[in-house]
Amino acid sequence: MTFDGVHELIKIKDLFPDARLILRIQSNERHKAKHNFNTKCGCHRNHSKELLAQAWEMKLNVVGISFHVGSLPDDAECFASTIADAHFVFQIGQSLGFNMTILDIGGGFPGIDDDGGKFEKIADVVNKSLDLYFPVSQGVRIIAEPGRYLITSAVTLAVNIIGKRIVRQNFKKKNQNGTTHLSLSPLNCNASHDKGRDSNMTHDIRRTDDDIRNNESLVYMYYVNDGVYGTLANVMTDSVVIQHKVLYREAQPDADASPKKPSIIWGPSCDSLDCVVPDCNLPDLKVGEWLYFCNMGAYTLCLATDFNGIERPLVFPVCSKHYWNQMYPEGSPMLYLPYV
């Protein structure tokens, strides 16, 4: 059970005095992360002696130290400096008489290596620091919380195009922070309303489509059936740039070779914040076609809501035959999961 303040110790003493406790410390403040947990959790290393002494006086059992460098840290060295801080606090605990046997190095491990071997670099830094400060001979149990690392690549999200608009781009500029702003106006159709069901109306609409296909001032806006209030929540929480792909049927093997158009991918809600990809290039797609996004396992479906009455997507577990047979070499369990 973790604690990082005296009020937690008071509760534990009252409710579960025999608990084995782990002091959570802040990560080293020299480093930054996309989601910095220091503002909410953790005891500063300079205050750890006072807190550990309080736990000793209350006859509580502190057995280790934990930390979390933050989600998506800027550099791997944050692990080295925070492991050094943990060792400093470890020694304080031992000097007070605690039997310190556990170090929890938390999470912060990336789910994909999008910048060239990032996980391998973190692993190298962590292993060298542990060898230096917590060698195997000390018998300290090392645990970690690699949630993002384990689950990110395990999920692929498929979305259906449920709506489409083509609008004229009046201007496009970027602010100092890189945010793109578009001024868009609806594209008028040459067909007039008073033609009613006249066949010429269909002809005029078709001719208008042909005329605009190569117009570079146009933006193709696609509305899909999942968005930032659903599975694509990581667009807002992680400011992640979603890598989108078009799912083509076998009957369209050359569809990806068609000219790309400036495009925006919107979620299904009525909120203008529900923008999945604000600036991309896609072929001219039709309503009913599919897009898909890889690496959608972390902080996505678990954060999804039913905002605007839009239901969460269905989940289809799939496992390759190779890995299925590795997990269950003696035959499939009672739970049936399809494999490919």
TrEMBL record:
Please identify the protein, giving its name as recorded: Orn/DAP/Arg decarboxylase 2 N-terminal domain-containing protein
Q: Where is the Orn/DAP/Arg decarboxylase 2 N-terminal domain?
A: 1-150
The residues covered by the Orn/DAP/Arg decarboxylase 2 C-terminal domain are 153-297
* Gene source species: Arion vulgaris
- Tell me the InterPro entries matching this sequence: Ala_racemase/Decarboxylase_C, De-COase2_C, De-COase2_N, Orn/DAP/Arg_de-COase, Orn_de-COase, PLP-binding_barrel
Q: Which cofactor does it need?
A: pyridoxal 5'-phosphate
**GO BP:** putrescine biosynthetic process from arginine, via ornithine
Record SUPFAM superfamilies: Alanine racemase C-terminal domain-like, PLP-binding barrel
Q: What would be an example GO MF term here?
A: ornithine decarboxylase activity
Answer yes or no on keyword Lyase: yes
Name of the encoding gene: ORF125572
- Give Gene Ontology CC terms: cytoplasm
UniProt-listed PANTHER family: ARGININE/DIAMINOPIMELATE/ORNITHINE DECARBOXYLASE, ORNITHINE DECARBOXYLASE 1-RELATED
List keywords of the entry alphabetically. Lyase, Pyridoxal phosphate
